[in-house]
């Protein structure tokens, strides 16, 4: 009921999409149905994309097998993600009522195309229907990047496998062209999501989601009672159909303020400064014999540990956090416990 809110959101998501170098097929300016929408969180974006994928595959399977019931089809649907994907991906599967398989990453914690291909082929042999893949660009634990290009090829070689990209944290860095190599293959995705509220100076909540074919989500959620009908139906995106709630806040306005206040170059410098600070911290760790890095530093996250036992590192964390000056959140992969220094405050300086 507020066309100005909708219009600004359409324009802001096009600005933001161009800032990231997203292909035009994701943007409203391409003139088709594609475009972006602001969700509250990355978890919602993953669920919404899963529901779109589910609607698309259901229609396709029903055309092939009109004799199958919805329940028959639903029990065969299967999705995939890296074992290192965020827990919200598993939750999306639970909420969407479908199976999601966590696949083993390579030794750099990236999901690779070959692993996905084998899993999909194995499931097809079992009579299952692969329909959804989440590629993570910047995993929560250690900021690893799935091989989107390889994964995209595998998805494209099967019919109706929807590829969603979860770049919740690292997506902000793609406003700097030098980091876009990490999203190579993005044109093969169906949906892309990142949280400007994580690392782009936008206040919580603001999670940007782009869809090439929003019609599957609109169709999945569309119930149109008389009290929600209006004269302008079809003339602009009706964002209530692109999300789970009906009501929505005017979140595009704060995005407008951030982009107009700072401008693209300032935001690029902001990201570059954080990554440089992370590399400085990396150097401090590697030049001190007591410490080791757990993961290659690509963004503003440094995963490090004291050489020695997990318990020693737990004690170090307890002391650091106990002082109340800085706060670190740990993680553990394959039984190795490590600390994570995340540069993410606008006030962080070298000192
Ligand atoms: N995906 C990734 C890669 C994340 O790092 C996170 C949060 O840390 C999420 C999803 C969940 O984000 P949200 O709180 O926006 O649902």
From TrEMBL:
The record's section on Pfam families has: Pyridoxal_deC
Q: From what organism does this protein derive?
A: Pyralis farinalis
Q: GO terms for biological process? A: amino acid metabolic process; carboxylic acid metabolic process; catecholamine biosynthetic process; serotonin biosynthetic process
From which residue to which does any coiled coil extend?
A: none
What Enzyme Commission number(s) appear in the record?
4.1.1.28
> What domain of life is recorded for the organism?
Eukaryota
Q: Which PROSITE patterns match?
A: DDC_GAD_HDC_YDC
Question: What are the alphabetically sorted keywords of the record?
Answer: Catecholamine biosynthesis, Decarboxylase, Lyase, Pyridoxal phosphate
Q: Which family does it belong to?
A: Belongs to the group II decarboxylase family.
Q: Which one of the record's GO molecular function terms can you name?
A: aromatic-L-amino-acid decarboxylase activity
What's the name of the protein? Aromatic-L-amino-acid decarboxylase
Q: Which principal EC class is assigned to this enzyme?
A: lyase
